[in-house]
């Protein structure tokens, strides 16, 4: 209670003192505002980039393992000759794995190539064509905008059915309803049975709406079964995924008939590898950005410290009188500290308001996101700046000798 | 008033409040550091690109179906007709300006074997003629270059890049030894001086042999690059024009149609990253500039305090006859001195800081003279801009009021 009252009291004194030197206080605050705006804007930029990365990863589906011939490696020691002679994956593995696995929700196989799609006179030059098993609807996190995905029955008879992405639907059908229309894929007639929900771009680069999915059985008839076969398994939770990684390694070794001691001739990939790689890449860039922007906050802080020194010097007499009538050193310390924190917090409020503006501005050309965490962080940084840079001047005032101070002209 | 005297006054005023001056200077140092280190770092990156992209000799022009540095979609190039050895021979006959012309064909990526030792299967086997080494800015370390006779007679001779030599021969003599590539025997006639690596890819992991020989082994129908020298640096553009004209004739490109090949030189390669470094540079300057703005405001603030504190001094000087101009001069110079001291330290620290990147990237150290000079002039300007208001305020003080000021 006493503490609170003394806090309110010192805030009041601080406010009066600042008001007495409006221009000076204003300029000092401006320095802090500049620092906080740049730090906050940088933080929103980083947040924005991270968020769009995460949402891009979500598009690929969460809790999914990919079982492939090739590992997703990005390092410099990537020796392709270690992997080139591995056996290809087979579509039939999917059903086997599904049958044997206890942890996974579904296992699917998919094949990939790009080809031309035609409808009447319209053409899509490079559609990402995918041949999948029925369970891809689960593992690929397929959402449909209209129509349906192919059924087990369609798969078994190798029907000429196709599900298309929104970009393809737009390019081929404009305003018309694509479902039920017949398009041509390498000369064969395919019925469009569904349109995928719009997914957007992956990391702003590769569009996911340019894909077309058909049963793997049909795909195999067209292009053969040996083309980039990839198995993917979907799990309910992250824990199950961690467990599933080991289960699938075991199951794959069993299917492949590998003797104990023989090295795996397949790779189990997961999206975390992407995330790790992304972190390595971005940490340095973020570090430099944050460092540079913190410099401007540091400059603002030095301004505060300087002005507080002046303020302490000017009020030497006041400090002397307060001490003479019984103020404790601690109270003097708090008085000046409060003053510098008030300046910084005031600067922080204005800074965050301005940062909202810059965030909106940056969003016009790039991604930025102002989260509550950033706001709270910015305020704490302001308070800490005030304490840190206000401490030395306040300490000087607190330690001053009242007799000397009173004599000061 | 004498300028030296003003300077002396400014310095003594600054040393009277040492803590304050030091803090202000520190702020300026940090601000200048931000700008200078950012721009130095960008020049280091720029320099790195320039160094690693000096792939060709000085006045070399290269013709290929795809751009050497390719960004974005490659659809536009993939249906282009191959540039074959026939095209090379025709171009060679037609050219008047372009000289020392050589084809460059990557025949395969494979293993190279010698005496039970084998490299990884990622050695590039280049087929070319006697001009390849000089046109690609390589040099012979030991032995000899390919000769015209080697090419005419399709001799089974090779030059080895440093990586291959090291793997197969290490400390042994390599020249005149016989190595095996894809079951064929070749005699080593020379070793090529190492060039290091670019973008993490070694430039010394190759074998060079006469294209006529490799063509006989692997087949001649393949897409190649053609490299040629301009007569001198000043004739590069004329040579490019001539090569474009001849290529269009050879490949039957109708008038008005765009070229179905790409022409590149060292300059065009180095220019291809300009947009990236431009963005980085702009970002660095904005962030650093904001920091410097903060520092400038700090200077202005402290000058205002200084004016207030020295009200009496100003009053006395005015009453004994100092003009307004003299007072403005005094305070402006004081500001500029602070900014210059801070600026110089900031420039030195900033150049050092930015060059840390050069150490990390293992490229040569850069001193961005332009940034340094702009820094010095810029700090004078900043001193002027942020010093003007306090100085004018000081000069406007009424001597009577000032003298009465407590």
Summarize the structure in short.
The complex is a heterodimer of chains A (409) and B (406). With 409 residues, chain A is of the alpha+beta class.
Strand order, sheet with most strands of chain A? 2-3-10-5-7-6
Distance between the termini of chain B: 28 Å
What value does the average pLDDT of chain B take?
A: 87
Most extensive chain interface and residues per partner = A-B, 31 and 31 residues
Uncertain segments of chain B: none
Describe the global form of chain B. elongated
What fraction, in percent, of the residue positions of chain B are helical? 55-70%
Please state the structural category of chain B.
alpha+beta
Low-confidence segments of chain A = none
Using the CA coordinates, give the radius of gyration of chain A: 33 Å
The tally of beta strands of chain A, per DSSP, is: 12
What is the strand content of chain B? 15-25%
Shape descriptor of chain A reads: elongated
Decide which structural class fits the backbone of chain A: alpha+beta
Specify the biggest β-sheet of chain B: 10 strands, mixed
Q: How do the strands and helices of this protein lay out in sequence?
A:
The complex is a heterodimer of chains A (409) and B (406).
Chain A: H1 2-20, H2 22-59, E1 64-68, H3 92-100, E2 106-119, E3 122-132, H4 136-139, E4 144-147, H5 152-156, E5 161-164, H6 166-173, E6 182-185, E7 188-196, E8 201-202, E9 206-207, E10 211-215, H7 216-223, E11 230-234, H8 238-256, E12 267-270, H9 271-314, H10 316-324, H11 329-365, H12 372-399, H13 402-407
Parallel strand pairs in A: 3-10, 5-7
Antiparallel strand pairs in A: 1-11, 1-12, 2-3, 2-6, 2-11, 4-7, 5-10, 6-7, 8-9
Helix pairs in contact in A: 1-11, 2-9, 2-11, 2-12, 3-8, 9-11, 9-12, 11-12
Chain B: H1 3-16, H2 18-52, E1 60-64, H3 75-78, H4 85-94, E2 99-110, E3 113-114, E4 117-118, E5 123-128, H5 132-135, E6 140-143, H6 148-152, E7 157-160, H7 162-168, E8 178-181, E9 184-192, E10 197-198, E11 201-202, E12 206-210, H8 211-218, E13 225-229, H9 236-250, E14 262-264, H10 266-271, H11 274-309, H12 311-319, H13 324-361, H14 369-396, H15 399-404
Parallel strand pairs in B: 5-12, 7-9
Antiparallel strand pairs in B: 1-13, 1-14, 2-5, 2-13, 3-4, 6-9, 7-12, 8-9, 10-11
Helix pairs in contact in B: 1-13, 2-11, 2-13, 2-14, 4-9, 11-13, 11-14, 13-14
């Amino acid at each position: 209670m006493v503490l609170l009252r003394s806090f309110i009291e010192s805030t009041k004194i601080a406010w009066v003192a600042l008001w007495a030197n409006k221009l000076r206080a204003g300029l000092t605050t401006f320095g802090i505002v500049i620092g906080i705006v740049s730090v906050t804007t940088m933080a929103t930029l980083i947040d924005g980039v991270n968020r769009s990365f995460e949402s891009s990863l979500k598009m690929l589906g969460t809790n999914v393992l990919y079982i492939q011939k090739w590992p997703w490696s990005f390092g410099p020691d990537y020796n392709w000759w270690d992997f080139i002679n591995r056996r290809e994956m087979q579509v039939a593995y999917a059903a086997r794995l599904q049958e044997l696995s206890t942890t996974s929700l579904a296992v699917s196989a998919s094949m990939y190539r790009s080809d031309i799609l035609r409808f009447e006179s319209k053409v899509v030059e490079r559609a990402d064509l995918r041949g999948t098993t029925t369970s891809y609807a689960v593992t690929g996190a397929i959402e449909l905008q209209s129509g349906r995905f192919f059924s087990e029955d369609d798969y078994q008879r190798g029907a000429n059915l196709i599900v298309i992405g929104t970009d393809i639907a737009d390019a081929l059908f404009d305003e018309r309803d694509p479902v039920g229309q017949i398009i041509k894929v390498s000369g064969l007639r395919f019925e469009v049975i569904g349109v995928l929900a719009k997914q957007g771009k992956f990391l702003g680069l590769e569009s996911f709406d340019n894909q077309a999915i058909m049963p793997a059985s049909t795909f195999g008839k067209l292009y053969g079964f040996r083309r980039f076969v990839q198995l993917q398994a979907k799990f309910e939770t992250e824990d199950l995924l961690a467990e599933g990684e080991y289960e699938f390694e075991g199951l794959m070794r069993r299917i492949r008939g590998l003797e104990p001691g023989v090295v795996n001739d397949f790779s189990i990939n997961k999206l975390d590898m992407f995330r790790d790689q992304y972190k390595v890449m971005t940490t340095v860039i973020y570090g430099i950005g944050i460092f540079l922007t913190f410099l401007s906050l540091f400059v603002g802080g030095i301004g505060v410290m300087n002005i507080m020194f002046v303020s302490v010097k000017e009020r030497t007499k006041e400090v002397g009188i307060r001490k003479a009538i019984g103020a404790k050193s601690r109270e003097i310390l708090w008085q000046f500290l409060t003053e510098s924190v008030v300046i910084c917090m005031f600067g922080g409020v204005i800074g965050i308001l301005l940062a909202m503006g810059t965030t909106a501005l940056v969003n016009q050309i790039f991604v930025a996101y102002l989260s509550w965490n950033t706001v709270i962080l910015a305020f704490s940084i302001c308070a800490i700046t005030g304490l840190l840079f206000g401490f030395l001047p306040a300490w000087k005032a607190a330690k001053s000798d009242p007799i000397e101070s009173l004599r000061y002209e | 008033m004498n300028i030296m005297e003003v300077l002396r006054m400014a310095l003594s005023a600054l040393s009277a409040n040492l803590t304050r001056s030091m803090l202000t200077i520190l702020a300026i140092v940090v601000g200048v550091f931000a700008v200078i280190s950012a721009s130095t770092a960008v020049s280091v990156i720029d320099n790195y690109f320039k160094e690693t992209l000096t792939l060709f000799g000085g006045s070399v022009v290269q013709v290929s179906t795809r751009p050497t540095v390719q960004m974005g979609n490659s659809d536009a190039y993939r249906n282009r007709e191959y540039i074959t050895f026939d095209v090379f021979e025709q171009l060679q006959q037609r050219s008047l300006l372009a000289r020392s012309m050589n084809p460059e064909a990557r025949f395969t990526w494979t293993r190279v074997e010698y005496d039970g030792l084998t490299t990884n299967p990622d050695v590039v086997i280049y087929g070319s003629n006697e001009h390849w080494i000089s046109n690609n800015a390589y040099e012979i370390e030991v032995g000899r270059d390919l000769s015209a006779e080697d090419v005419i007679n399709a001799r089974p001779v090779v030059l080895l890049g440093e990586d291959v030599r090291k793997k197969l021969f290490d400390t042994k003599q390599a020249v005149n030894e016989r190595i095996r590539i894809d079951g064929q025997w070749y005699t080593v006639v020379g070793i090529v001086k190492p060039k290091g690596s670019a973008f993490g890819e070694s430039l010394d992991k190759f074998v060079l042999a006469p294209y006529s020989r490799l063509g006989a082994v692997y087949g001649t129908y393949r897409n190649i690059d053609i490299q040629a020298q301009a007569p001198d640096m000043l004739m590069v553009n004329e040579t490019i024009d001539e090569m474009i004209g001849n290529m269009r004739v050879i490949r039957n490109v109708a008038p008005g149609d765009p070229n179905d090949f790409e022409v590149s030189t060292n300059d065009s390669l180095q220019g291809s990253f300009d947009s990236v470094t431009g963005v980085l540079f702009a970002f660095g300057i904005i962030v650093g500039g904001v920091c410097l703005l903060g520092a400038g405001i700090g200077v202005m603030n402290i000058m205002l305090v200084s004016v207030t504190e020295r009200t009496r001094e100003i009053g006395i000087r005015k009453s004994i006859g100092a003009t307004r101009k003299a007072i403005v001069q005094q305070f402006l110079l004081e500001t500029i001195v602070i900014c210059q001291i801070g600026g110089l330290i900031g420039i030195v620290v900033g150049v050092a800081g930015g060059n840390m990147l050069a150490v990390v990237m293992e490229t040569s150290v850069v001193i961005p003279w332009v940034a340094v000079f702009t820094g010095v002039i810029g700090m004078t300007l900043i001193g002027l801009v942020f010093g003007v208001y306090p100085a004018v305020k000081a000069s406007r003080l009424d001597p009577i009021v000032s003298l009465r000021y407590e």
